[in-house]
């Protein structure tokens, strides 16, 4: 495993994202949707709503951000290189497919996690400053904040592997992105069900889900590596 | 490392089949270190697939090969790719990245030491130092092709595969690429050049191979001409000869003759340098008014057309 090759591709990807307006828009629109509407709702809540809120974990719905944001980028990662004709030159270098895929996963992970934490931070600051008394402490439970911090990278990585897996098998960027969002909807559904207490969050559930996601994230690398067939990607056959 | 006398590339019965579609078959050749080798053939002949196979991008279905002295096998892919560079037909540059950023990425992929100096050197080689900050998406096709060539030079490869390097370039840009290929060849880099442009191959290549799914011929352009075409003289006289058979058959250097219009004759000869003066003397002695005697010139294009048109059309293949 060459760290330099991996970082070389990551650097290239990050430069490319910065100059791709469509990619920036795709990564920004979901956090904005997740931020604005709930903020308006919560800021309007009276102080009396604090008691029922303290028995729920509504902020966990924000885990939908890391589950969705990187999927757009990851789903475009391989298929866009094929369409631009840049995949063949890269694959003629000594890079191993595991290195290439790790770089392709790390590149969207960094902005996705950063955006998720940033949006969460903005949310917390705004309700601390402007929500009615008692509402902010009721929402900002320690366990929820810890869950947000731990699950954000795990969910983002899972979403990325799903996106890359779809990207290795796609010939069209938009189709890959739509399929990727569909593929990640079960994760969003799960976090929403936990947030609204349909699935009651417990420490055991959190540890179990965390361990499962960690295992799946490691497995995702292997599975996507197996799906990544140089010959098929270059010649379009097999 | 490749041994001094070990070929840079050797292929033995190499072939690739995609399901029931044959891309190329039974390809055998050796390329010496420092040789500029031309690989010619019509569309769909299997040239690009051969390059991709030798470049470890796709696996052969038959035969064997060594590239840069290393056996072509899946476990040797990384080692082979360290020693070669491939410039595909399409430049394949990141359009939102600058020229320098594109090259930085590939310098990392090849783990080039002192990348900044190497990038400057590669840009100098393709005469692009003043465009290093331009976004690749804003460059003309010719400039993009030059950036792709600079990228291929970054790793200082032992073997350089160039797939149609001048496709779509204007004559000036083509000339610059030709000069660069010639300079690389002189510097000892082995160059595997696939091209449709026969004058390009004739000008640049030490040897050429003609592929049309299978290898039709291989050799130096002059050898191929000699092998394929009889040496001929074209004789033109002011008036048709009364007894051309008597005039030509008397010459020992002339092996045969045929008419080629009014007062024109094509003679098959063993050695034009011996036959031409003898024929001239004989014709003048017999009172003929000789307008010209010229040695017929066959180009690589004649060789190519002769071999390609005599073979079956290229089968449906994957480019």
What's the short version?
By secondary structure, chain A is mostly helical. In chain A, 80% of the residues lie in helices and 0% in strands. Chain A has helices at residues 3-18, 21-43, 50-54, 64-84, 87-91, 97-130, 135-139, 142-168, 173-195, 203-227, 230-235.
Describe this structure in words.
The complex is a heterodimer of chains A (238) and B (319). With 238 residues, chain A is an all-alpha fold. Chain A has helices spanning 3-18, 21-43, 50-54, 64-84, 87-91, 97-130, 135-139, 142-168, 173-195, 203-227, 230-235. The model of chain A has no long low-confidence stretch (mean pLDDT 86). Chain B has a six-stranded mixed sheet, with helices on both faces. A four-stranded antiparallel sheet of chain B has the order 2-1-4-5, covered by helices on one side. Chain B has a four-stranded antiparallel sheet with strand order 12-13-11-14. The two termini of chain B are 31 Å apart. The A-B interface holds A 2, 4-5, 7-9, 11-12, 15-16, 19-20, 84-96, 230-231, 234-238 and B 18-19, 49, 52, 55, 57-59, 78-79, 81-82, 84-86, 88, 90-97, 101, 104-111, 148, 151, 155, 318.
